[in-house]
Amino acid sequence: MKQSKGVKIAKLSLKILLGLVVALFMALFILSKVSANPIFLFDKTTMWVMTESMDPTIPPKTYILVEKATADDVEVGDIIVFRSSDPRIKGKFNTHRLTFKSGDTLVTKGDNNPATDGIYSPKPEDVVGKYVKTIDGMTYLGRVAMTPVGFAVLVIVFLATMVICVIPDVKEAIKAKEEEDEETKQKEIRRLIDEEVRRLKEEGVSNNVENAAEQDKIMSKDVEKALENVENASDEGKGE
Q1: Burial of 84 (0-12, 13-18, 19+ CB in 10 A)
Q2: Domain that holds residue 35
Q3: Which of 25, 57, 136, 181, by CA, is between 20 and 30 Å from 114?
């Protein structure tokens, strides 16, 4: 059964939307590992934890879901994400548990570290978010993508998926548009032909009327002439 134009457009739009969502996911997947600033969508983002400082709560090389937060939003016991002043990772983000909070004084510690972060604990303005949970599926992909071969495979799979799911529908939509344009063209041609036929018919009727009128004039003249001849013949008879 042939699908209507509306159904085709709806299906294509849905697949394009799905492709954009997947592309967005891939962008976040990559940027969360390389970006110097977190990219929040609806106050959520993902981040890549490299070290074992929060093991076993957050194993090394794990993606986590982070909720946007300030120092006012977090409490003792929360795992927070902050920009670290530790010279070993200065400027990068650290994910440790908040163990003390009093006014603007914050103290953090990795669950697997023997001591607190001390002077490298965050200032209130360094806090950017709060840990929500680990993301197992994304973590698996992240670990695969850490290898050059694994990353290449993921990119190829993504591109292949886009080609298989979206491109055929795009081609079908283009073909449908061409067919629609051709149908419109044919309709216009038929309309012009119909108008021309109608015009010719109208002109034919008009010509017939004009010819009939002309013939009536000729007949009238012939009758008048015949009457004149009769009158003339009558006058000549009287004269004799």
Answers
A1: buried
A2: 5-166
A3: 136
The residues with which 44 forms a beta bridge, in sequence order, are 41, 67
Choosing from 151, 166, 181, the residue where a domain stops is 166
Nearest alpha carbon to residue 48 among 122, 123, 146, 126: 146
The answer, yes or no, to whether the previous bond of 56 is cis (omega within 30 of 0) is yes
Residue 121 and residue 40 in one domain: yes
Number of structural domains (the chain) is 2
Contacts of 103 by beta carbon, 8 Å cutoff, 6+ apart: none
Report yes or no: 80 and 127 within 8 Å, Cβ to Cβ.
yes
Question: Could you tell me which of 85, 160, 163 has the C-alpha nearest to residue 126?
Answer: 85
Q: Cα angle at 59 between 55 and 60, to 5 degrees? A: 110
Question: Each residue of 18-45: pLDDT tens digit?
Answer: 767 766 766 665 665 555 577 787 899 8
Q: What share of the chain is helix, strand, coil (3-state, %, to 5)?
A: 60, 20, 25
173 SS3 class: helix
Residue in the structure block whose two tokens are 């209130």: 124
Nearest alpha-carbon partner for 76 in 106, 91, 98, 48: 98
